[in-house]
Amino acid sequence: MVNLEDNNLVNNNIPAEEEDGKAPEESIIQQLLGTSYASPLPPFVFWIECTCIAIQSILLSFFSLGYLNVVYEVPKIWMSIGSDDYPTDPSTTTFLSGQPIWIAIGCITGLIVGILKAYIFKFEEYEGFLEYLMNLGEDGKK
Fold this sequence. Notes:
By secondary structure, the protein is an all-alpha fold.
């Protein structure tokens, strides 16, 4: 059984009274709030975490930049090898440079997929995406 009179077990932020019964030298506000998370004094937890996050962000940015360049360049190289039909100017294959029929093809295939999902999964049995998001915290109650 835990002794509730021991302040260190109940709340680690408020130091226990000294042996002679006097309160420590710290003010009541400091006792309630504890030490600052971004303290310039040791331990430098906040600043170490900020440095780690900055390093990870820089590394992820360089990885993403390389990945995007690969995703952009490899299809151009792949489609131009051994193909006389590929245009000499790859910029002609950019957005809105294709045939308008692809708009209709995309709409029809999206409609077919939606109808198949409705038929197979029976939407009345499953909640929608917004209902799912609104009920995320209620998983333990169901």
